[in-house]
Amino acid sequence: MPGKCILILLDGLGDRSFPELDHKTPLQAAQTPHLDRLARDGANGLFHAARLGQALPSENAHFAIFGYDMDQFPGRGALEALGAGIPLGDHQVALLAHFATVRETEEGALLHVDGKPRATTQEAGMLFDAVAAYAHRDVEMRLHPTQGLRAILTMSGDVAPFVTDTDPILNDRPVMAPQPWASHARNVAARDTAEALAAYLEWVHRTLGKHPVNAAREAAGQPLLNGIVTQRAGRLRRVTPFTECFGIRGLSIAGGIVYHGLARYLGLDCVKAADTDDPAADMTQRLDLAREALAHHDFIHVHTKMPDEAAHTKDPVYKKQVIEALDRGIGAALPALLQTPELLLVIAADHSTPSGGPLVHSGEPVPIIFHGPGLRRDHVRVYDEISAPAGALGMVRGNELIYLVLNHLDRIKLQGLMDTPRDQPYWPGVTVPFRLAGTERPAAAAPNQPHNRPSLIYPTGVIHGRFQILHNDHLKYLLAGKALCRHLVVGITNPDPLLTKPEDNDGGRSDPSANPLSYYERALMVRAVLREAGLAPHDFSVVPFPINLPELYAHYVPMDGVFLLSIYDDWGKRKLGNFQSLGLKTHVLWRVSPDEKGISAADIRRRLISGRPWQHLVPGSVPPLIEDWKVAERLQRLHRNASE
Question: Residue 321: how many CB atoms within 10 A of its CB?
Fold first, then answer.
């Protein structure tokens, strides 16, 4: 049976039939030999992320696809804030917002004239600045630009996300008044949020109406940008990370900040990919990256928005052409994927998007394929909405999809077994071994066996690393150390040039080109990653650690702690010898050969220099820091200097 899964998610693939396609859907009408091949050799069925007939947005459908119940959903506003890197506290509310052209009616209402106006970059910047911040009583609001005239509006204070949208979606309809949900009509925070939002939107309209940008646009006969509309308020909440829920490590390769935010929220690693005007090349590139990432991930979500975007043009012929292009892209990557041993391929969509009519999305189910060794092969020969119901999978709903993935990866738990205190769906769970009294040192987990974690046995552990740049295997190493102690002291080696001394067998670790990040940056990165992994601030400390200067150890780390390390080369053996010569207590987490080391920070640095994908090799909180600090440019400069 398969051991790893790639989910190819063709956003908005499902559709309705159209006369110009001989009363077929765009998928039915499209020539898709590669998808048809997978259908012939796999198990087919239909999928809906909720109830049949229910029209879902992508974020809700994906939430179910990733295995979560809707009562845990935080709202799209919160997810887009996460994806855009906008700081959002647990008690803040975030809403989607965008500029619109509105007109006052005789009754004092605002008519939504155009929800997709255009503006120059300069105009947009000036308007955003004009309405960036506002306060109403104790509620503070800030508008954060994301793309074009779109933004995230954050609200702080005694606020709640249970407020209605103000965006009517369609033109020539009134902008709607924000109101508390009926289910929260007595919620004071919801009422205050609606009141503050209404005050802000009125202030925005009056402020923009007097703005010089709009005066110039009016003089030029252009529509005014004189209003903002909002929708889909949300607030972050606690959610169990994906790996902890399902026992598999996830990666999302997707475009769009909502998918990046969803991955970050659920604890999946994320690679940001943009949709270009070449859907075939985009798909091939993403699938090649996914195949490479199988070395470090068990479940990889490969997403394209192109079928959905094509359907929104309301041109079914164009959507058919986009589907054919995506099939070509899948076909280019397919030979290598099919040669990948024990791979489960799942092809699905999140929802249907009609290429005609007024609906944004519609409620028809979408076809799904499971392809891999050991699966039941059915008699379906083509991949489309009409053929799929005859397949072996039948009708798959909601989070049943991830359970089917676990089942076909031979990771599903037999119902009723309780190998851990929490009744997780996967097997084996993260178990605690039974130990005889007096046992001092349990065997630690190997790097590729994260589920066999030993119990806490040390008050304080001291672990170290350069973390240039902190990657997924670094995180495994840190968490393996934390599993052994109540408090983990993370020592950052080579903290500055004065505390760095070259060693004969340190493999160039002291070279400037191998140390692009400052101590401060690495400390921030370690803290961000460990907090993202669920550790509380009191669980760990981050300190400088001059590994080459043992005479200074006592000034930086507790010498009565247990010094934790892994060994995969002569430098590791040398460090162990140094620790033991000082009389320090040591614990080797694991010994592996250099070939088994796994991810290399040097490789990530090389990828940054050359522009190759690297985000899938690091925890989710690392890419925003690396991008903010412009580390790629820094490394490229160091590389040029070293070459001169």
Answer: 15
Query: Is 382 found in the same domain as 242?
Result: yes
Assess whether pLDDT exceeds 50 at residue 442. Answer: no
First to last CA, the chain: 52
Q: How far apart are CA 37 and CA 330, in angstroms?
A: 11
Q: State the pTM of this model.
A: 0.75
The single-letter code of the amino acid at 317 is V
Q: Is residue 107 part of a domain?
A: yes
CATH for 555: 3.40.50.620
β partners of residue 541: 489
- CA atoms of 271 and 612, how far apart (whole Å): 11
Tell me, what DSSP letter sits at residue 176?
P
The answer to whether residues 102 and 55 belong to one domain is: no
CATH number of the domain that 350 lies in? Answer: 3.40.720.10
243 shares a domain with 228: no
**What is the pLDDT at residue 444?**
42
What's the pLDDT band for 448 if we cut at 50, 70, 90?
very low
Per-residue pLDDT, 46: 98
Q: Are residues 64 and 98 in the same domain?
A: no
Which residues 6+ apart lie within 8 Å of 228 measured at CB? 97, 98, 99, 100, 131, 143, 151, 153, 201, 204, 205
Question: Residue 44 sits in which domain range?
Answer: 4-69+238-408
Gap between the Cα atoms of 28 and 367, Å rounded: 11
Beta bridge partner(s), residue 45 = 368, 394
Q: 459 versus 193: which is more confidently predicted?
A: 193
pLDDT, mean over the chain: 91
Read off the DSSP letter of residue 428. S
Q: Which of 197, 192, 201, 235 is nearest to 77 (CA)?
A: 235
What's the longest Cα–Cα distance across the chain? 87
Q: Is the pLDDT of residue 34 over 80?
A: yes
Residues 6 or more apart whose CB falls under 8 angstroms from that of 222 comprise none
Taking the C-alpha atoms of residue 208 and residue 214, their distance in angstroms, rounded to an integer, is 7
| Residue, of 436 and 183, whose pLDDT is higher | 183
| C-alpha distances out from residue 498 to 493, 516, 554, Å | 12, 15, 17
User: Is 441 within the bounds of a domain?
Assistant: no
Contact yes or no for 543/464 (Cβ under 8 A): no
Q: Is residue 435 part of a domain?
A: no
At 574, is the secondary structure helix, strand, or coil? helix
Report, in angstroms and rounded to the nearest whole number, the Rg of the chain calculated over CA atoms. 27
pLDDT at 594 over 80: no
pLDDT of 438 > 70? The answer is no
In terms of domains, do 196 and 152 share one?
Answer: yes
What is the average per-residue pLDDT within 83-106? 93
247 and 157 co-located in one domain: no
State the pLDDT confidence band at 451, using cuts at 50, 70 and 90. very low
Looking at residue 455, its pLDDT comes to 41
